Amino acid sequence: MRALGGPVSRGARDWSFRLLGAAVIVMAAQEYLAGHLGVHTGELYGRRPGFLPLLPAAAMIALWLVQAGAGLALIAGWKRNAAVRVAALATVAALTQHYFNQKMFLVLTLAAFAIDPPDSEEAGPSTGAVRGQLLLLYIASVAFKLRDGFASGDSLAATLEQLGDRGLSPWIVLPLAAAPVMSKLALVAEAALPFALLRYPRFGVAGVVLLHLGLALCLPGIWPYTLTACAAALLFLPPFR
Amino acid sequence: MPPTSEKLVANSAALVLVVAQAAWFGAGFVFPSLPGWTMFARFERLPPVLVDKDGKTESLYAFVPKDVYVTGLSGARAIAAFACRRMPERAPWKLVSKDGRAEDACAP
Q1: pTM (two decimals)
Q2: Which chain B residues touch A153 with a CB distance below 8 Å?
Q3: Which residue, B65, B86, A164, A40, is CA-closest to B105?
Q4: Is B56 exposed, middle or buried (CB count within 10 Å of its CB: 0-12, 13-18, 19+)?
Q5: Which tens digits make up the pLDDT trace of A6-42?
Q6: Which of A1, A33, A195, B73 has the most CB within a 10 Å radius?
Q7: Which of B44, B53, B101, B106 has its CA nearest to residue B80?
Q8: Is the C-alpha dihedral spanning B4, A11, A83, A221 positive or negative?
Q9: Complex ipTM above 0.90?
């Protein structure tokens, strides 16, 4: 597990913050464009913990603007330490309004970055935490997929069917017949990534980018997940010498 | 270089975060009703249509934001119950599968 605490490339870390900023902006923009305000006006159903109050629509808009501002600051590199903390707090608040797994992953990654945004090539606690979280994500995802029989392709076929029922158009339309093969490929890729990231970080990062780009092109609405995973993966890159 | 106590706090916070995520993963694995890191692991075929008392239909997905994936029957039933509360004048609603099977959407 030496790689969890190993040094990180300065350039990769800078891009990691930029991608994280982009993830926060895309998350906020996507929620607005997908009509989440309808949840706040009572027109749409929202999945959230029932014991927490639902914010008025104006407060939700303000929250999205704060997220967008913090995301922009992360991309531009302005007051990065403050920006990542503001983004983390605003995204936690947004998570209480609409629960998504990808938003939870973004919150956890922001929280890890917020612990101690590193300012040298020496990996600080933040870097180790982000790396550990990404590895855990893949291990958990594989474990859940094995438990639930994902490799059969039925789950992916049902996902594709729902896209059709809703009239949602992904960039790449997968035929239903491809579901069993694509499911197995995704499972193998996710199982291989933790090993690749630790042992061959450059191949591992390329694998993360390819996998998540492919997923985002086939499944609408998961760009925040893609950007967050790529931001976390970049922290595995050692300094170029 | 931060003072030792600050570094200790940062290290502890990092450890707590990773352990908390591991616990969340473990809890979701043991209790499937929790939203664990499932990432499309289990995705059910759902009844996509709601039918009101007059036989008029609405897409189940018209009642959720466009970026929300409905992964299971329990989610579909929760959305159907929301439709019942939102438009009681059109109740009773039925949740109808593609094969024609219907279930009461407004059952308590």
Answers
A1: 0.93
A2: none
A3: B86
A4: exposed
A5: 888 889 999 999 999 999 999 999 999 999 999 999 9
A6: B73
A7: B106
A8: negative
A9: no
